Amino acid sequence: MDIVALVILAVILIVVAKGVRVVPQQNAWVVERLGKFHAVLAPGLNLVIPFIDTVAYKHSLKEIPLDVPSQICITRDNTQLAVDGILYFQVTDPKMASYGASDYIDAISQLAQTTLRSMIGRMEMDRTFEERDDINRGVVLALNEASVNWGVKVLRYEIKDLTPPKEILHAMQRQITAEREKRALIASSEGRMQEQINIATGARNAAIQESEGEMQAAINVAQGEAEAIKAIAAANAEAIARVARAVELPGGMQAVNLKVAEKYVEAFAGIARTGNTLIVPSNMADLSSLIAGAMSVVKSQGGSGAAKA
Q: Which residue segment(s) compose the domain that 116 sits in?
């Protein structure tokens, strides 16, 4: 009896173990009943019929990265590129993922490679480096259209490397070097041009400032000379006025006669003496006649002045 009880207990434990399924979080198990799809077990504790229901497929509902093997693609301008990428997908329908394709992972990888070759074949090599984002979006759209029946969704695709042949790489490097040298020469020439412009502008401004300074100096000199002439004229006018007033005073005419005589003698002495030779007039009476003539001019000028007064 004890042996039978133990056997029955063991059978019960086996049946219970076969009938209870604990599904982890973010997982989905596909159950088949007698070889036919029956249900998808959700995360947690699930009960099945032992020996009738079997777990045929187990799927992870997490985002899964898939490394797409590197391949050689030919561009529109017949350049070979080694392209290496990675895509991220997620199982959205466990039933379709189980029965829609024999191996959805291999199907996604193969379709990604063919789609990538097709897209790069429509582009020139230079554009493939510039339009990586467009290529990535195009691959994702093409994969999602085809993977509807596979129960998966491609979330994104990223190109990891675009490697052209060594000859193309060397040519690209030479082109980049030439372009940088060109920009350096242009920048240097623009710097020299700006330097010459600055020098010319500085010289022009300096010449303008110098000419303005010279003009202002000439104006100041002219104004000074004009003021000096005015001052001299005013002083002469004042002196003449004083002499005229002095002549009208008693004894003034005698003083003028004496002054004229002195000036005449000084002038004659100056022009008569030449070196060590003294020139003396042949007729000394001429001296008195000259003085008398000068005095008559003074008297006439004095008389006319008095008449005007």
A: 64-164
Q: Report d(CA 138, CA 158) in Å as an integer.
A: 11
* Residues 12-37 as b or e (16 or more Cβ within 10 Å = b): eeeeeeeeebebeeebbbbbbeeeee
71 vs 136, 167, 181, 259, CA distance in Å? 16, 19, 35, 128
In contact, 37 and 99? CB cutoff 8 Å: yes
Q: How far is CA 161 from CA 128, 265, 279, 309, in A?
A: 11, 119, 121, 119
Taken as a whole, the chain contains a residue count of 309
Higher pLDDT: 117 or 130? It is 117
Task: Please say which residue of 118, 141, 164 terminates a domain.
Answer: 164
- Give the pLDDT confidence of 247-280 residue by residue, as tens digits: 677 766 667 666 766 666 666 666 555 555 555 5
Q: Give the pLDDT of residue 67.
A: 92
Q: What is the mean pLDDT of the chain?
A: 81
**Same domain membership, residue 125 and residue 50:** no
Closest CA to 57 of 79, 28, 34, 36: 28
Q: Between the CA atoms of 255, 257, 259 and 264, what dihedral angle is there, to the nearest 10 degrees?
A: -170
pLDDT above 90 covers what percent of the chain?
27
On whether the CB atoms of residues 126 and 171 are closer than 8 A, the answer is no
Q: In this structure, are residues 56 and 78 in contact, taking their beta carbons and an 8 Å threshold? A: no
Q: How many domains does the chain have?
A: 3
What the block records as the tokens of 68 is 């797409």
The model's pLDDT over 34-66, given as tens digits with 9 standing for 90+, comes to 889 999 999 998 888 888 888 999 999 999 999
Furthest-apart CA atoms within the chain: distance in Å: 196
Which pTM was predicted? 0.53
